[in-house]
Amino acid sequence: MQDCIFCQIVQGRIPADLVYEDESILAFKDIRPVAPVHILLITKKHIPSLSDVDNDEDARLIGKLHRAAVSAAGRAGVLGSGFRLVANCGKDAGQLVDHLHYHLLAGRSLQWPPG
Ligand code: AMP
Ligand code: ZN
Prior knowledge:
Blueprint lengths: L4 H6 L7 E4 L3 E5 L7 E7 L12 H21 L6 E4 L14 E6 L9
Antiparallel strand pairs: 1-2, 2-3, 3-5, 4-5
Bound molecules: adenosine monophosphate and zinc ion (ZN).
């Protein structure tokens, strides 16, 4: 296990407002929400970023994250109004936490393109 902040959440060493958990993934509310619905979805396994997904097991985890995101959107009541799923990868994308995660954003009209 790595000592990164999301690994610490996985280990229960840092509290988080969990909305979903199973054996391989975790979803919790972003501590600094930028939309009425702002949920982070992570793999329990420490994968630094999308660019490190290079095997079938990790690809399967990505699929699980997508399905969990749609489920979370349903529970949040935004399937009808819409949602955005974002993975920042690397410096130019503004990735701050080097543990693969998706942002589920919803609950307001989101601008495109992002800044
Ligand atoms: P990114 O820029 O894609 O790496 O986004 C990292 C996200 O993690 C930011 O939206 C932060 O607000 C969020 N974040 C950082 N620490 C925590 C934490 N302890 N609990 C919940 N969200 C966090
Ligand atoms: Zn980690």
